[in-house]
Design brief:
about 375 residues, disordered N terminus, mainly alpha
Amino acid sequence: MKRYIYLSVLLVASAAFSCIAQDDLELSDEEQQFRDSIANVNLQSKVSAEAMKAYNSGNARYKAKSYKEAIVFYDKSIKSNSHFADSYFNRGMCHFELKEYAPASRDFTKVVSMKKDFTAARMKKGECQVKLGSYSAAESEFEAVLKLEPENSVASYNMGTIKFMLKEYELAIAHFKRAVSAKPDYAEAYNDMGSCKRQLMKYSAALVDYNKAVSINGELAFIHNNIGSTKKKLKDLDGALIAYDKAIAVDSKFYMAWNNRGSILFDKGNYNEARNNFSKAIELNPNYALSYNNRAAILIIEEKFKEAVADLDKSIKMDASNAKSYLNRGIAKEMLRDPAGACADWQKAKDMGLSRGKYYLMNDCQ
């Protein structure tokens, strides 16, 4: 999603007025109104100058990524001129960068109230609502943008992203198609359209979209990773391995590709290299629970049960929702002659819906 920042510099015309002191003279109504209007112009000019000075100082801090300092100056700008839409917008951008989505949304809302056709503000407000989990409110903003700008590819893409998160994959595909219609080289939209089809188990169709995406931009590692995951679904292990290799060639720190490469090597029976891949993923992201579970599976095969339990303890601590980690820890504990611990883990796996947990409970915990 694109970021927008308005860094305009306005020229404020100031007029100098000189007049003869007339305290002892009587002024007509017209003369009084004229003098009052001059005073008002001078006051507004001063206010505008103060607002612009603070605004430009805020912009300098924004460009330096000193977002909290920038907010202080935008506050001053808005205090001097409460109708300064660009100050509200840029303050909202600072809050967005700081992941303060509620105040950011309020600022973008203020901008829209002053400038209903300010599509950048509507886009950012929609993005805030996505971050806040208010998908319906976000859709309203993106729909409003599309009414003003029917060919806005990013708004269509954002709509597709919301539908994907809601698991409404067919609707998501329709929005991604609209995005690529407006922007034929939109690699991310082709990628996400492929991911929708993969969720619908239309793997061959998904590969068509992924390959289109990678033909547009081969430097996006996650697209190669998605190709690998789809080829694995099609039982094309060699093709999957090639795709993961390409992902790692693009981004050697892409820990998910290292993990996925390890899973292919595991399926091919190359446990030593698979373990090395899982260890590499952990090195790159020590909080990646899945790789601890996967490495533990190899440690169990190698009969290194204490090491396996240590990895599985970490996996469960990081992600308690993975039933396979409980299943595997139960196996390792059984081999360490801890039947009570093993049965407790298998019970947990069963309760989480894993059929293998039920199998072990029935056969080993009676």
